[in-house]
What does this fold into?
Amino acid sequence: MTATTPSENPLLDLSGLPRFDAIVPSDVQPAISQLLDDCRALIVRLTSPGAATTWNDFAAALTDGLEPLSRAWGIVGHLHAVNDVPEWREAYNRMLPEVSRFYAEFGQNLKLFAAYQAIAESAEYARLSPAQQRIIDNEIRDFRLAGAQLQDDQKPRFQAISEELSQLSAKFSENLLDATNAFSELVSDEAELGGLPEDTRQAAREAAEKDGQSGWKFTLHMPSYLPVMQYADSRRLRAQMYRAYATRASEFGPAELDNTPLIGHILRLRREEAQMLGYANFAEVSLVAKMAVSVPQVLDFLRDMAVKARPFAEQDIAELRAFARRELQLENMEAWDVGYVSEKLLQKRYAFSEQEVKQYFTEEKVLSGLFKVIETLFGVCLKPDSAPLWHQDVRFFRIETPAGELLGQFYLDLYARATKRGGAWMDEAITRRRRPPGSLASDAIQKPVAYLNCNFSRPIGSKSGQARPALFTHDEVITLFHETGHGLHHLLTRVDELAVAGIHGVEWDAVELPSQFMENYCWEWSVVQEMSSHVDTGQPLPRALFDKMLAARNFQSGMQTLRQIEFSLFDLLLHSDFDPAEERSVLDLLGEVRREVAVLVPPAWHRFPNSFAHIFAGGYGAGYYSYKWAEVLSADCYGAFEEAGDPFDQNTGQRFLNTILAVGGSRPAIENFRAFRGRDPQVDALLRHSGMVTV
Ligand code: ZN
It folds into this structure.
C-alpha cells in the first residue's frame, strides 16, 4: 500500500497554516491512521537494540517524529470543538480511541523510559541546554509517576489501582449527577414564586409542563437552583432546596447513590498508590509536577492567607447579618438565607445593570483596546492577516516586532454558534521550535500559531445589512483578555525546544499566571476609557458606573477567599494528614478545617465532601489550592507595575516578557517568577486587589 501524500490529503500538509479551506472529515481516518503507523514505526526504530541514546538520535528524533501526529490531531480536535456537525463529530470520535491508545501505550513504554534515563545518566546530559535537560527530567518524572520504575511484581497491583481509581471517579460523578437529577420541588402556589426573575419562573413552568404537571418545577441544576437561592422570597422554598442540594449523594438519599463509601475507597487507593511510588501520601505525588514544592509550603500559604483575610470576612458576615435583621427582618440568618441576603445587599449598594455596561463595549473598540495594551506592554505590533478559515466569523492576526519580523499568528473566533463547544479557550495550532536540520522551510524557526475561541453574542442584524456591532459584557471582556493571556504565553515564547516552548511544560499551578495577569487591565481606568464607546452616543464608560463595577467586584471578597481556602485546606489535609484507616472521619477533618478558617459554618447535616467532584472526580485532588496560588502569582506580577507607578511601564513590561512569557516551561515557574519579581511570591497584592486592605 502506498502512503497518502499531502497533495492528496490536506490534513497531512503541515508545511504551513492548517488547510481549513481544503480539509474534509473523510481526510481524518486515512491521515491519522498513517501518522499513527509512522509514529509506531519510529518508536520501534528508536528503541531497537543498539539504537543510539543521544539527544539528537533519540529525544530530538522522537519529538520530530511525533509532531505531525499531534499537529494533525490538533486540527481535528479543533474542528470538532468549533464545528461540531455530525460529520466532524463522527470523524473525530472514530479515531479518538486509536489516538488515546497510542498515547497511553507511549506512557507505558519502558524502552522509551530507559532511553531517556540513558541520556540523563550519560556524559552528554551536562552538555545539554537547560531547556533540553528539563525535557529529559520531565519525561523521566512522568514515566516514574506512571509506575515505570516499579518492580515487575508490583506492576499488576499498580495497574489495578489506576484502573479502579478511574472507575471510582467516574462513579462518583455519575452518582452526583443522578442524585442531582433525582430531586425536584414542585411549587403549586404562585405566591411562593415571589422575588424570582421572570425567566426562572418561565423555565420552571415549562419544566413542570414537560412532566405533564401544573405548577412550577425547580431542580438542583444551576440555572434553576441558583436563582432560587439568590432571589426567592420564600424561605421555605430556599430551605428545602438548600437541604436537598447540600445532601446530594449522601447517606440521606438512596444508598446506591451515596458517595461516602467511594470517598473512603478513593482515599485509600490514592494513598496506596503514593506509597508504592515511594511517597508518604498522595499530596506529595500531586505536588511533584507542580510549582509548589511541598505540602507544608502550601499549608503555610493557605493559613497565612486565611489569617489575613479573616478580619475582612468577619466584617462581611457582620454586615450581612445586620442587613438581614434591619432590612429583611431575618433575626437568625441561616445557611439558606446567605445567598438571598447577599444579593439584596449587593443590589441595594452597588446596583448597576449589566445591560447598561454592555452598550459601551463594542467589538472593534474592545479589540483595539486589547491590541493596544499588548503593543504598549510588550513592544510588539498586531496586524490583520489572512489564512484559510473554518468559518466566516473567524478573524486572523499576526504579531510582529517593530522591525516587521513575524513572531506568531492567531485566529480569533469570537461568537457563539450552535456547533461550537461552550466556554472560552486557547488552543495551539503550531508550536514554536527550531526546525530539524535539513528542513526545507526557509525560516530556521517554526513560528507559533494559536486559536482563541469565545462564545460571545454576534452582531445583531448583520444578516439584514443594518449591522450593529457585537456588544460584550464586562465579564466577556475579561474572558477575552484572559484567553489572550494564554495566547501570549504561547505566541511570545522564545524557546526553541517544542516540548517546553510556550505553555508546554509549564507547571499546572502556574499556567494561569499570564491569563489572570491580563485580566487586571480590564480594571484599569485608563484602559477602560480607551476601549469603551457607547454604541449610540460614542461616549466612554462613565466613571461613576465604573466605580460601582469596581465596588461590586470586591463584594464579600473576604468571605469568598476564606471559602476557597477552606476547600483548599480540606483537600490538601485529606490527601496528606489523614489516614483513611484512622478513627477520625472525613467529616471530622472538615469540621477541624472549618473551626480553623471558616466564618460561616453550614448545618451539621451538610455533606460537602460528597459533592466535591473537583477532587474526587476531576483532576484537582490535592490541587484545589492552585486556584488561589495562581491568583497570588498573577496579582503579585501586576503589583510590579503598580510599584513602577504605571500599568504600562516599559521596563517592567519587557521584564515580564523576558522572564515569564518568553521563557515558558523551559525553566521552573518559581525561577521565572523570581527572575521577574526578585523575590518569592507574596499574597499582599492579591489582598489589595480584592479590597482587603487595612486603612
Ligand atoms: Zn485560563
Notes: Residues 482, 486, 512, 515 surround zinc ion (CB under 6 Å).
